Amino acid sequence: MDFKNTPKIDQVGLVERADRFKTRSIKKESKIQGLKLALNMIDLTTLEGKDTSGKVKQLCYKAMHPDHSLNVPTVAAVCVYPNYVAIAKSALGNSKVNVAAVATAFPSGNSNLKVKLEDTRMAVDAGADEIDMVISRGKFHEGEYQFVFDEIAAIKEACGKARLKVILETGELGTADNVRRASDIAIHAGADFIKTSTGKISPAATMPVTLLMLEAIRDHYLKTGKMVGMKPAGGISDAKTALHYLVMLRETLGQDWMSNRWFRFGASRLTNDILMQLKKQESGIYQSGDYFSKD
Amino acid sequence: MAKQNSFSLKFDTDWQYAPAPESTDHVEIKDRYDLFIGGKFVKPSSNKYFKTINPATEEPIAEIAEANEKDVDSAVKAARKAFPKWSSLAAKERGKYIYRIARLIQERAREFSVIESIDGGKPIRESRDIDIPLAAAHFFYYAGWADKLEYAFPNRKVEPLGVAGQIIPWNFPLLMAAWKIAPALACGNCVVLKPAETTSLTALKLAELIQDAGLPEGVVNIVTGAGKTGAAIVNHKDVDKIAFTGSTEVGKMIQKAVAGTGKKTTLELGGKAANIIFEDAPIDQAVEGIINGIFFNQGHVCCAGSRLFIQESIKEEVEQKLKARLETLIVGDPLDKNTDVGAINSKEQLDSIEKYLKIGKAEGLESFQANVTVPKKGYFCKPTLFFNVAQSSRLAQEEIFGPILAIQSFRTVDEVIEKANNTPYGLSAGVWSDKGSKAFNLSSQLKAGVIWANTFNKFDPTSPFGGYKESGHGREGGMHGLEAYLKIS
């Protein structure tokens, strides 16, 4: 595969198409169903220097029991640094909530392969179900696409049974054409998911960038029959935006991708807004933010 | 390009969108509408009325007056009477009136949008986001020109023509009224406008709005009726200008009727636009543009991209993606905010479109319709693709004016230019290529009034619009649009 010659993207048309999804009006039962689905797709995330085992444990509890007064599903996973995987794993016990770990010198990815592999194995050995790696953006900009490809392939091997999410950090790639190229590299190198952002760079996930990644996934599926998942991360903080993403997912990839096996939201604040909206659908009025746990 | 396999996506999802109907509570529609002549609503001299139908339900909405020659004559007289004062009014004052109309349209945008969708069948998303805002934008744009006409034509003397007779089609009722009325008023003319008989309501609501705006009596007159009423305007001796948007057939009749009379004409007629996609195009964005190019407003668009030319190397991929995109188009209730394709404007038009579906079948063409449900009542047509259409097929040659795309293929640039220009029409065209030089080459060689590159169906008041060949003559929009309503010496 010649990654220098990946499909062309027209930025203006891309944004126009993404905006069109926002005109879909999601009401009533459709809204409730969509919000619950979105909640179930969240990778509840804490990636801070000041993370502690206490914080991680609290987050895990929230992941399993988002709200006691509502009949809602759990989130999909808890996303932490590798050194908190074991704590998260034991806190989540037998629940269906997965543990995802960022690895490979997250967030910059500036280290050598040996360290990155070590980082990955450490997380996998501690029980991580999913690994969120970052690509080497510097090498990508240098045109070293084979290097980027080989690195992803090596990490994928180190993941063993854990599913690999490949973070492109689209905010650092500069153009839509580059995002498409990076998506194709990651998909061909064996990514189980492609993911927009670390959350440490602005812009993080946007609808246009997510759309073009969904289209890369679709093109790969139509040619090979192999499904790849998608995870927009960072910047999706309200329920309405999450529903727009689901509309986009529904109308780009369809039924087979409409579960947390193939689509995730990397987010921390989104959970409470979804809960607030669900509570509003149930009671007819918006509740104070104080009724929702801030973790 | 790699061969496409048989893997397909499933858009019949567990998660469905609930109905999201636009509220109609704020809409006021009278049971009966009279003619708007000399600033007042007056009964038609024949005392005849006809029904306007909601094409999505087949139910009557209101009764509309039918204007005969006598009524048209009084409308023209009212316009003539108003002309001396209106044309000599300080230009900046004229501009103020037009600005006021623009602002009132914005204020009542919701009501206008809903009525446009009820009366014409177009999805509320389009009337709300395109038709009504663009109509207001045209008034705003030409209001600005009113006191700057000399700057548009430096070192020339400009004068208004007098009374303009304007006949507009049913596909963009209020927008076409704006395209016609705004430049005419800005240049100091008075007008007699006739909306299409299936979609008179927003023009009559505009008449009410014009009353509210305090426009001097007789400057704008609106007479309703069918072809006979239109003929009465065209043949009236005291009309100085005919502006017509509609079919090429009627355009030819008008051209014959005004021959030798000294009446100026602007004709914006039919089209059969070529939309050309090259192998170096941004495919996904092109597919979206092709879909919007043909299914926008149910394909009732004179500049619709109704002939698609795909370069053979990407034919399979593009066709597969077009089919997939068709599956996600929502066809149905025009008032539902999620509807993409609404109702066909009239029974007559639906019959005409269905005739072409039969022709396609008779020619043995492979076709595709999405697995969408269409309401039982009302005039609906599923979006349709016809593949491997020959240049000699009627589907490639005739304007269908419905949601039907004729797909053809080509190998070289020269071949596609020849095929694209091989039509009596020449209104619009589209080119899809990531290579700028190719787009510029095509745009200079395609014989069409509007050529879009990597987009389609984009409209703006600042941009002139009009055709080559049998798509008409004269330009509307932009500075060029002023010329049609001025004597320039």
Strand proportion of chain A, as a percent range, falls in: 5-15%
Query: Which spans of chain A have pLDDT < 50 for at least 5 consecutive residues?
Result: none
CATH class of the largest domain in chain B: Alpha Beta
Number of helices of chain A: 11
Helix share bin of chain A: 40-55%
Number of domains of chain B: 2
Oligomer category: heterodimer
Task: Show the helix and strand layout.
The complex is a heterodimer of chains A (295) and B (489).
Chain A: H1 11-21, H2 28-40, E1 42-45, H3 53-64, E2 77-80, H4 85-92, E3 98-102, H5 113-125, E4 130-134, H6 137-141, H7 145-159, E5 163-167, H8 176-189, E6 193-195, H9 207-224, E7 229-231, H10 239-252, E8 265-267, H11 270-283
Parallel strand pairs in A: 1-2, 1-8, 2-3, 3-4, 4-5, 5-6, 6-7
Helix pairs in contact in A: 1-9, 2-10, 2-11, 3-4, 5-7, 7-8, 8-9, 9-10
Chain B: E1 32-33, E2 35-37, E3 40-42, E4 49-54, E5 59-65, H1 69-88, H2 91-107, H3 109-120, H4 124-145, H5 149-152, E6 158-160, E7 163-167, H6 173-186, E8 190-194, H7 201-213, E9 220-222, H8 227-235, E10 241-245, H9 248-258, E11 264-268, E12 274-277, H10 283-295, E13 307-311, H11 315-327, H12 347-362, E14 367-369, E15 384-386, H13 394-397, E16 404-410, H14 413-421, E17 428-432, H15 436-445, E18 450-453, E19 472-473, H16 480-483, E20 486-488
Parallel strand pairs in B: 1-5, 7-8, 7-10, 8-9, 10-11, 12-13, 12-17, 13-16, 15-16, 17-18
Antiparallel strand pairs in B: 2-3, 4-5, 6-20, 11-19, 14-15
Helix pairs in contact in B: 1-8, 2-4, 2-7, 3-4, 4-6, 10-11
